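Hey,

Quick one before I head out. I ran the complex with copper (II) ion overnight. Inputs first:
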Amino acid sequence: MLSRFSSFLFLSFLGLIAFSSCKKETSTIMPVNELDGLQLASSFTDSLNGNIVSLFTPSGKFQTGYNDVFLQIKDKSGNLINNATITWTPTMVMMSNSHGCPASGIIKKANALFTYQGYLAFQMASNSSEYWKLTIQYNINGQSFKTNGVINVVPSTARTLQSFVGNDGMRYVVALAEPQQPKAGINDMVAIVYQMPSSFSFIPVSGYKLKIDPRMPSMGNHSSPNNQDLTQGADQKYYGKLSLTMTGQWRINMQLLNAADSIIMGEQITPSNESSSLYFDISF
Amino acid sequence: MCKKVLSGFLIAALFSGHLSLAQKQANHGTDSLARHLDEVIIITNKSAAQKYEKPLGSIESYLEKSECVNMVRRGAYAWEPYVNGMASERSVTTIGGMRIYAACTDKMDPVTSYVEVSNLSKAIIHNGTSGASTGSTIAGSIDLQPTKAGFGERQLKGRGLLGFESNNGQKIVGGGISFSQPKWYVDVNTTFRNAGDYHAGGGQEILYSQFTKWNFAANAGYKLGEHKEIEASLIYDKATNVGYPALPMDVSLAKAFIGSLSYTQHHISSTIHLWETKIYHNDITHKMDDSKRPYVPIRMDMPGKSRTTGFYSKLVGESGNNHWISTLSGHQNQSRADMTMFANAPGQKDMYMLTWPNVFTNYLDAFVTDDIALSEKFSINISTGIAVHNNVVKDTFGLESLQIFYPEMQRSRTRVLTRASIATQYVQKNWAFKLSVSYGTRAPSVSEGYGFYLFNSFDGYDYIGNPMMRNEKSTSLSAGVSYSKGMLMTKVSSSVFYISDYIVGVPNPQLSGMTIGGNGVKVYQQVSWARIANVVADVNLHLSDNWQWNNNFGYRRGVAALIGNIPFIQPFSYSSDLGYKYKSYGINISMFGNARHNLINPQFGERNLPPFVVFNLSASKQFQIRKLPLMAKAGVENLADTYYATFSDWNAIPRMGRNFYLNLIVSFN
Ligand SMILES: [Cu+2]
Ligand SMILES: [Cu+2]
């Protein structure tokens, strides 16, 4: 009882601190914090005009699978640009046939003045003879610029992207966007689903559904309860809930259904079928 | 109610000078009510030749003598007390009034496993829903009372213990010294036990049934004034390398530190006779171990810990024909257990979860009981108690894990627990009658409320706790009649428990089991009702000064909605005990048997068990070696080497086969 009371006191005290500190912070804007939690992954200098385009990711790396990417543009005198419109084109230059990858539009990062944000989902890692080239076109005050560079994409530790030909004969790319930091408990799960009509065309699909069935292959392939299949949100990404009852290695088996509810890819898990052909792996 | 009678006695004894415990025990035999209706098991026993028990037997073997206790056995060590056919979460076990929570998610360490017979004077078993000052309960309570030297004439006493058992090669070594003075006392004692695997009847070795246990206890007291004293006590108990043949895992370490400090004041006023306040703390460490098992699907680490800090303050008084005791008590417990599963594939991450998510239990309790002597023959007892019970899940990882199942679950939950009872006793010449009605409630245990994938190796299910459950409630009715005349002493008593919102694991086929090779998942739920009935009868014949013949019969029946037969319910059982003593010699022959166990519940892993009967034989003698009294007792248990298992054997592991034992106790004053 005593400790209940003391924890109550403690909490009210904490509340007081939080309240007083809040008041201070709302009065100022803090552009310094725009890159909090991000690390520089690459930067391109435009040799014609001296502009620098910097690319940031949470890990400072580009990995196969889904990547949140943040951008800043500085002019040659070092001023950050706050009114650019930006587009990008990723290309994997390969020995035989080059291709692109799913890439979002680029928007201003929430609560930021100078930082822009989008995502790229790489199907493959760079190697000694094949590489990813990123072309960035941007427009500042009616003037357009274009710069490009080579980025290094490293293989991610777990499988979080799958590229396949579906039962409808179309090529698809499905990638796991969230959770990036899985926890034991209910995780918000986010995925992107793109159709790939040609090597350089990627279109987010609408009205599809991703059924999920997380399993632990090293523990008798047990599942977890209260998962919620992924359905499309307003931003075209797919949203659902993923329950993980413990840490360790999980396989998220999936089935992709089109708007007419017919199965595009993946199988149900049964005692005789331990894994779907469409899956992500998560390890934490 | 029996407890009240006894407490009254204790106090009487305290006032009538400084009687030793032995004298108190001798005394209470003179009271007809106490004799017939008490559930007191005397453990420390200075005239062992007259007793039939194995003096250095385990605490479990003593408790099993009680008619309302069954001991559920998962191996040779640390049996779980079932009071009135109900598992340990439905009763409260205390040591000297101190609340202790076990630290094992698999019930490998009931509170009773942390003491030794050599440092206990008796176990007071309170039979029934209410009336227990130690906390709200459904089935009853067990209070294990430590021995202490006590204040008195200046005297130095000592004791040495030596024991051996043939079946599992158990060696028992122990000793104690106590020093008393009118103003202060101090005592210490220690016991060490080491046993190998035991063998079932027919000789089959029961693998993983070994154990090693070391126990140390110390007490000290000091008189601040004529009627004021402070006392301190300490128990340190450490068991290592304990096998659990009925379970898939063993224990590498089970350790307890149990300490208390108390202040007692007597003769406060004409109405208040005694005021006792105790503060206490205990710390339990538990480490499970599967390294001795050659084949397991996955290697695991499952440590648990439990810490409790608490107090009680008790006033004992008298006004007119009222004898009352009021108790205020409270405690805070912290229970935490986790599980790491080591991935078989190299390079894979190990798996981790919290099986008890660092649950804090905060508990505050007020309790009053009053004995009213309406006439010489007729007395009534009224008890009532109220408690506030609060659980907080401190660990966010654990909270979020449970929220997978219960998204609306809150971190903290508070409930109110109430209890009340009325009991009457009527004594008429050779007859004594007892009738009581009581009501009690309990909160779900840590496992029932917050357990996460706790594997039950009996029914093969993983159990998920349910934090959304209501209180479990019980109304019980009990009646007893005893008659004694001449050499005959007989007693019949019965109790019926009507439990509502009965907590039990119910299979959920939607959920996927975690344990490899398990049967699935059970979630704790509440079924609308459960009924448990108990009947016991004693017929004891004091044939002559030398011959004593005791007979005992018992039967229980338990049924619950949805599940049917409640598991671990004792079938008809009987025991008979014939003792002969002559001068310093004693001889005893006894038998014990059960009828077929067929009112079973296969859903809980129970199987049909055939009837059995086993015979025991013992002889004792009191020697004098250079003026030192030496008590020797030798005997054989399960004389015919019968292979058998009882209803209370987890996974029906067989009991011990033929066992020869020798106990030696030497004392000096
Ligand atoms: Cu697992
Ligand atoms: Cu354990």
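Residues 1-31 of chain A have pLDDT under 50 and may be disordered.

Talk tomorrow,
K.
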